[in-house]
Amino acid sequence: MGQESSYKDKKVISIGVVSELTGLTERKIRYYEEKNLIYPERTNRGYRKYSFNDVERLMEIADHREEGVTTKEIKYELTKKERKEAKQKMIKGQINARFGIQKN
């Protein structure tokens, strides 16, 4: 059975709403996209769409920037965190497969 995605993963929020939610300007949000810190989806017309997870990540990025952390350092930490989460997910999947545990 396929893995269900959370509502937090669905890319349905426009950049204007994200700007209101985070307090970041649309220009700053686009800048973080250019730096590969976030990955919005694009509609057929080219509009960016964000998820609630993207909003949370942008708020985390903004907090780090206020503390003086560079975008390069943020990218490194986010990549490190993503690798760790992927590894944990893989191990959990291997354990579940080994013991015949199925997700419902």
UniProtKB/TrEMBL annotation:
Residues covered by the HTH merR-type domain: 12-80
Keyword Hydrolase: no
Cross-referenced InterPro entries: DNA-bd_dom_put_sf, MerR-type_HTH_dom, MerR_fam
Alphabetical list of Pfam families matching this protein: MerR_1
Molecular function terms, GO-annotated: DNA binding; DNA-binding transcription factor activity
Matches recorded under PROSITE patterns: HTH_MERR_1, HTH_MERR_2
Keyword Oxidoreductase attached: no
UniProtKB keywords: DNA-binding, Repressor, Transcription, Transcription regulation
Protein known as: MerR HTH family regulatory protein
